[in-house]
Design goal:
The protein is an alpha/beta fold and 569 residues long. The protein is 66% helix and 10% strand. A 6-stranded mixed beta sheet has the order 6-7-8-3-9-10, sandwiched between helices. Strand 4 (384-389) and strand 5 (392-393) form a beta hairpin. Helix 14 crosses helix 16.
């Protein structure tokens, strides 16, 4: 909660003003039963109609002032809580985008989505309700008790006797509530993850007739969330009936004792009616307090989850390391890495790529090809060995220095629901002439044939383009920034052989000065590379040109024969 407190601190002044207005309205509201008592006990028995009318008008004015005060204070609390939550959500999003891939893997995408949405919503409600009810409820409770003591000290003792029982009830509920609502949020993470999986794989699910199976799997996750939510809600729901029972029992005792005192002439009927009004005010105030604790239990559980992200340290900070002075553009020096730290996913990767050269990486699925690119982009830090660019370890480069040199097309990339121009520009200052050059190089001339050309609107994930067209738009995005290092992760899998060949020829002609790393399943995509790595089970089992590998590497020779047949050599 300390981190959330830092966001609240700049608004202390506004919260103070809002609280003063709220206190003023609440105090005015507390006058109403006393004014009614004066009418019933003083003016009405004496037949003083003027006094009755004046006091009645005063009650109306007090009621209007109390209503206006509460309205103004509630609007202020809503504005303050909205701005605080906006800043929390903004910083949370910035922290999430700055997280390393390892941190994202640990927290999971589903949990991050849940924290950014439902958890911030719970914190917003907590801040808002604490401002609205956190002042009003205690003021009504304490003020009601004080005024009741002045009116009827004997009857007030009945009320005070119930407070320890109510205090124990509220303390128990808050202690139980926070852990239970934490479990609810964890179950919600699982729900979000399952929904994401189903949405991403909807076409595959239908194609394989697995709809019923997925519905059952979703039902299990849904039932788990419902069970945890039910347990938390039932635990917190116990508070309201217990509180109501205690207070209503006290109210019944007050009515009996009050009637007895009126009968003995020890109290006036108007005083008893006013006391009952105060008792009702105190009852509602205590019910407000119970709602505050329920909201606090949810909000504090969510606040702790937000703090885990906001306080998560950066694990890929820039380091001061000496330059090695390599002549080559890119060097992998005995690099090994493990995702789960149980076994290495890539082992002892050692190779060099000169300026303007092309490196091809080929191998079966799961051999570590994409992991190699992830390490080069410093999404993860290598466990052993070192990666250097122009003789500098990548840990010594700032994020801007590293990423400004790279142009990347991922194996599973995305397109926004925006124009083709904005999808290629991607927030960078790139003129249309450079965009058109990138389009020509990427063999994406189809863009000019679309209605509006660069202004053609794409659907989410580019669903109104074919697979090959999507890949060419993504390649255009990578080329538009004129990168010094171009990373292509199986980005031509949806292209026909002719387009693939023309793309590789255009890359050599127009981006020959850029160092290019091509990860592919096709031998034809890498056979013209200056150097080719053949990977299997995280290791480099062959390295050399196409001709050298065809003679020396059995796996590469097998791939060539399967894909190229008689043209392999």
């Amino acid at each position: 909660m300390r981190t959330i407190g830092k966001y609240i601190k700049p608004y202390i002044g506004r919260i103070g003003v809002q609280m003063c207005i709220k206190i003023s309205g609440t105090v005015i509201e507390l006058f109403l039963p006393s004014m009614l008592s004066i009418i019933l006990d003083t003016y009405a028995p004496a037949g003083n109609k003027t006094g009755v009318w004046l006091m009645g008008v005063g009650m109306i004015i007090c009621a209007i002032l109390a209503w206006l005060g509460n309205c103004v204070a509630n609007r202020m609390s809503t504005n303050v809580s909205r701005e605080i939550t906006r800043k929390i959500r903004r910083d949370l999003f910035h922290r999430i985008t700055a997280m390393s891939a390892a941190q994202q893997d640990h927290v999971t995408d589903a949990s991050l989505v849940s924290r950014l949405t439902s958890d911030t919503y719970n914190v917003h409600n907590m801040i808002d309700r604490l401002q609205r009810l956190g002042v009003r409820a205690p003021m009504l409770l304490i003020g009601g008790i004080i005024v009741s003591l002045l009116l009827e000290p004997v009857l007030t003792l009945v009320l005070i006797a119930t407070l320890p029982l109510l205090g124990v009830t509220v303390y128990w509920s808050s202690k139980k509530g926070v852990p239970l609502f934490t479990l609810v949020q964890e179950a919600q993470d699982k729900m979000v993850r399952k929904v994401q999986e189903n949405m991403a794989g909807a076409r595959v699910i239908r194609a394989l007739s697995r709809t019923k199976w997925e519905q059952n799997a979703f039902g299990e996750v849904n039932d788990g969330l419902a069970a945890r939510q039910r347990t938390a809600d039932l635990t917190m729901a116990v508070v309201s009936p217990i509180t109501s029972f205690i207070l209503n029992a006290g109210l019944a005792i007050v009515v009996l004792v009050g009637a007895y005192r009126v009968h003995l002439g020890q109290s006036e009927p108007g005083t008893i009616i006013a006391f009952l009004s105060y008792f009702t005010i105190i009852l509602n105030a205590l019910l407000m307090v119970t709602r505050i604790f329920v909201m606090y239990s949810k909000g504090s559980a969510s606040a702790r989850r937000l703090e885990e992200i906001l306080l998560m340290p950066a694990d890929l900070a820039q380091e001061t390391l000496p330059d090695i002075g390599d002549q080559e553009h890119l060097v992998f020096d005995h690099v090994s890495f493990s995702y789960n730290k149980n076994y290495h996913n890539v082992i002892d990767l050692t190779f060099k790529v000169g300026h303007g050269q092309t490196l091809g990486v080929i191998g079966p699925t799961g051999s570590g090809k994409s992991t190699l690119l992830s390490l080069l982009m410093r999404q993860y830090d290598a466990d052993e060995g070192q990666i250097r660019i122009d003789g500098r370890p990548i840990q010594s480069l700032t994020k801007d220095e590293l990423h400004s040199r790279l142009g990347v097309v991922f194996q599973y990339d995305f397109l926004m629901a925006d124009t083709i121009r904005e999808n290629i520009r991607f927030g960078r200052e790139i003129c249309d002439s450079n965009i058109n050059e990138a389009i020509d190089c990427a063999q994406a001339a189809f863009i000019h044939q679309k209605e509006g050309a660069l202004d053609f609107e794409l659907n989410v994930k580019g669903r109104n383009l074919s697979g090959g067209q999507q890949q060419r738009v993504l390649i255009s995005r990578a080329l538009a920034g004129d990168p010094r290092i171009l990373l292509l992760d199986d980005c031509s899998s949806a292209l026909d052989f002719r387009t693939d060949r023309e793309l590789r020829h255009a890359l050599r002609e127009r981006h020959g000065l850029a160092t290019t790393i091509i990860v592919a399943q096709r031998v034809s995509a890498v056979m013209a590379a200056d150097n080719i790595l053949v990977m299997d089970k995280g290791r480099i089992i062959g390295q050399g040109t196409h001709e050298e590998l065809y003679e020396s590497c059995p796996m590469y020779q097998e791939l060539c024969n399967l894909q190229l047949g008689g043209d392999a050599a």
